[in-house]
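Deliverable D2.4 — example input (structure tokens):
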């Protein structure tokens, strides 16, 4: 499985370079840019993001194993009706659903490559590719290091509640990484980024962009369903991942948008205190 995932990532990276080269002639034409990308800043964020992800992996993978005493304290009744669905799955099919979820997320990450075939967008393809990588690094950093992520939260995955599974299957410290779903956040961040970029280059679509956002939610819901069936997450874990992915997928392109009138900076002074405020009204 690890080799298949590695090959998928390599194909995606190769795709970015191939598209960039194939559209190189058109990129030289004068066109109004929608986004401004500072290569030094974005490149630094990407580099720090990769290093941060490697460090976080070591932190997460060092979580101590669950003990038999830990498992005895578990109580399914502590969960809401919404999350009770996680206890109604077939544990014999865990590996199938987990594998399918990896294929689904890999395919979704590659979807924004389709933007390169748009005549308007491919003229700024290199900037968008860097911005896309930056978005994923930020999404991953929030998952890894925010107080809501597995580096700070120990929430058991649904699989540890299943009596049909052996102790060896349930004891891994990684089964403390139930909150929140990084797979879902990454999936939705990819599709929402795609819609945000497309709608910024095609403002004439108007309200129809909200239909595109609705469609962009479907892959995330699909992956969320598979992660529940794989006994990796409760539905509420997936919903938080869904929300985080939406925010990152929209926010990063919005912050790079040229002449974004929805972002304003101002100084304040009150009762001897002073500072800087940033106001942002997201333009979906």
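Example output (designed residues):
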């Amino acid at each position: 499985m690890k080799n298949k995932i590695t090959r998928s990532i390599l194909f995606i990276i190769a795709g970015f370079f191939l598209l960039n080269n194939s559209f190189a002639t058109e990129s030289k034409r004068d066109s109004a840019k929608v986004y401004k990308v500072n290569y030094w800043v974005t490149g630094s964020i990407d580099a720090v993001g990769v290093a941060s992800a490697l460090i976080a992996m070591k932190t997460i993978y060092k979580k101590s194993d669950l003990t038999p005493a830990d498992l005895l304290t578990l109580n399914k009744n502590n969960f809401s009706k919404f999350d009770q669905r996680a206890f109604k799955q077939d544990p014999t099919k865990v590996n199938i659903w987990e594998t399918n979820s990896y294929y689904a997320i890999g395919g979704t990450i590659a979807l924004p490559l389709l933007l390169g075939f748009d005549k308007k967008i491919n003229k700024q393809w290199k900037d968008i590719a860097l911005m896309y990588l930056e978005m994923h690094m930020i999404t991953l950093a929030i998952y890894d290091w925010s107080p809501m992520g597995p580096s700070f939260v120990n929430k058991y995955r649904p699989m540890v509640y299943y009596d049909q599974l052996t102790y060896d299957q349930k004891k891994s410290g990684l089964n403390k990484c139930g909150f929140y779903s990084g797979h879902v956040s990454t999936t939705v961040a990819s599709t929402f980024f795609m819609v945000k970029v497309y709608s910024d280059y095609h403002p004439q679509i108007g309200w129809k962009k909200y239909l595109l956002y609705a469609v962009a939610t479907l892959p995330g819901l699909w992956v969320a369903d598979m992660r529940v069936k794989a006994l990796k997450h409760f539905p509420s874990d997936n919903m938080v991942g869904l929300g985080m992915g939406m925010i990152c997928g929209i926010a990063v392109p919005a912050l790079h948008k040229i002449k974004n009138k929805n972002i304003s900076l101002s100084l304040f002074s009150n009762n001897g205190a002073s500072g800087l405020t940033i106001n942002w009204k997201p333009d979906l």
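Residues 2-280 form one domain.
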